[in-house]
Design brief:
The structure holds two protein chains of two kinds. By secondary structure, chain A is mainly α. A two-stranded parallel ribbon of chain A has the order 1-2. The termini of chain A are far apart. Chain A is built from four helices and three strands; from the N terminus they run αββαααβ. By secondary structure, chain B is an alpha+beta fold. Chain B folds into two domains: 455 residues, Creatinase/methionine aminopeptidase superfamily (Creatine Amidinohydrolase, Alpha-Beta Complex); 70 residues, no CATH class. Chain B is built from 14 helices and 20 strands. In chain B, strands 7, 8, 9, 10, 17, 18 and 20 form a seven-stranded mixed sheet that branches. In chain B, strands 2, 11, 15 and 16 form a four-stranded antiparallel sheet that branches. In chain B, strands 1-3-4 form a three-stranded antiparallel sheet. In chain B, strand 3 and strand 4 form a beta hairpin. Chain B is globular and about 65 Å long. Classes of the chains: A mainly alpha, B alpha+beta.
Chain lengths: 158, 569
Amino acid sequence: MASKNSINKPKNKINAFSHAKSLAKKRAARAKSLPSTRSSLQARYADKATTAIRPTDSKAVALYTGESAQPIAKMTNTTLSNKRAKKIARNQKYIAQRKQAESGDSTMEVESIQSVEVKQSNLDKVKVLLWSVIETNSNGEYKAKADGEGTTLGIQAF
Amino acid sequence: MELAVRQEDADVLLKQKNVLDETVLDKYRTAGQIVQTGLKYIISLINESYHLQKSDQPISVQELCILGDSFLINLLSKVYNNQIKEKGISYPTSIEVNELAYGFSPELDDEGQYFFTAGDVVTISLGVQIDGYTSQVSHTLVIYPPGIELNSEIKPEGPLLGSKADAICASHIATETLMGLLGLSLTPEKLPIALKNEGGISGRLLRNIVDSIAESFGCIVLPGSKIRRIRRFLAGQAEGIVAERDFKGVVWDESHQEERLLNKAPQSQELILSDSKSNIKPSGTNNSSAIPSDEFIVLPGEVYQIDIRISSLNDFNEVGLITLEEIDHFTGKNNKQEFNSKSTIHIRDFAINHQLKLRTSRKLLSEIDNQFSVYPFKLSYTSKHFPIDLSKDLTEQFNDIKQDLKTFKLGLSELNNRHLIKSRPIQLTKFVPLEQILISANPTGKHGIDMNKPVLPGMEIPLPQLGVSSLKLKSLLNKHGKSVTNVRESITVVINNVNNGEIIRLTGGSKSSSPSWVHSQYQLKGAYVEAINQIGQLLQDKRFGIKVKEIYPYKLNQDKSVETSMQLD
């Protein structure tokens, strides 16, 4: 490297270097103060885990209510994947089982009967009711009964 | 897809043009008169051919349809010339026998031999629009065995009995009662006491009354029955194809039969019914005005179509549902030799544009766009030889039309493939035992919608409580469906609030379609009997009752030409 006072020192190179250095400093400072997002320039090749989430990115929020999602006319970016929903449901089942096992045998019997009743879905109730309709009908209860003189319409003409 | 219309234009089209005044009423009346005459004409043709046996060969359904349509066109050509832009057939003449429910209007080149036999019930439906003001009629009549001579007149030997008679009684009483109820919206003070605290003539009241009438005759109101408000160009002609905003009316479908069965169950049902409707309908579309709901009040100044289809359950010992099955190109291809026919009624879907390849189809499309606008049509309407001249030789003209049909067949299939036009499927009424629905496996639940089924928005799932989709129901029909006869009565009424309020019966009534001679062994019963009887009395009472003005048909001459002198009511 030529000395500072040298006649043929590479002035351009040195200037470019110091310029780049100051820019890098600024960039580093900015990155420190603001969390980088996935869309921002410096994070283009960054790891996804280290970058901040954009407001429109979907968030896998585990809002599990036990029901399937209803179609609603609203935009949302909180999603619950099928896989995660299954996982949560499974875990809840294990938690319930563990609790039952801890609380002893005598209460478990009662609880299990109750939980079976609760679990009966709307569809099952509907089916039970409709089967009872079929049963009652086999006794001829729902048949319209002919009585009185009946009804006559029209006159004797084509 | 939605067409963009400016709000001002929409107001003119949907509101101002639907306010009743003399010109509007006159258009409705003329349309009604033509429809009445058309109905009378077809009934007279059937009577002459089958009952009085004047011709040596019975007239076929194909011929009846084309003759009816020609007759309507001929009558239309005499009114409102050069005054309005559009007039025409709003409902191609269709003639449905027994279990056929909808859209059966075969073209002349249909190879099937469609004749009637004694004991059949035949539904004749037709409709006409003048400047978009539409009247439509359906009437079911009975084909009797050859009659006996009484007082030098040939008359039927006895009334029709059995389940068909039950359905005819129920549908007749239902339409008459509904007409009276609609008329009572003009004079609510005359409402029977039993109905006073229902809060006006609401959709729920209309539904309950029809259901109770059907119930007392052991019948069921079929899916597709409706009592709906009609407006200019919006007469339900494209139901299931184009969704209509601000739909007002009561519509029946399979879900109501399901509800009825659940209500019959002896155990407590509050748990089901409490969370029924709100949970099952998709919440994103709940507020759409295209979805029919019973929460409305009939208002004076509106025009209504009462369209009631009824089937009797008295022939079946088991519990079940009655549903409609569409005939597609797979029907009848199995070993069962079922009825099959091609659908012939088409309607243009104006939301779709496409550059067509074939010259014939381009020509056909432009003709359809110019001639038929938003109303359904048959291919034979585009023929050069349509309408048929009734005074000339018919066989020759039939052959000419058959020739013309061939040239347009190819174009029609391209229009169909590009969805520029939609074909109305032919539907059959079928009974499915409830047991078969309950025991069948339904792993996919209510997912899957039958594209071919013309249903109103919000009614895509036939059995929401059981979670049975229309596709599942269709597959059940294939195995377990049994044909049921259906009966249809449809009339158009104007609740006229101009001058002194009255109800104008545009179509139906004793002058064109008096009920056939039938006897049912059942009688009216249920919670509404008294109210229904009172409405019947009010309709009879000329002075203090409900004022009904019937539209009379033109006089038919001996040779089936019409006296041209205009005589309004």
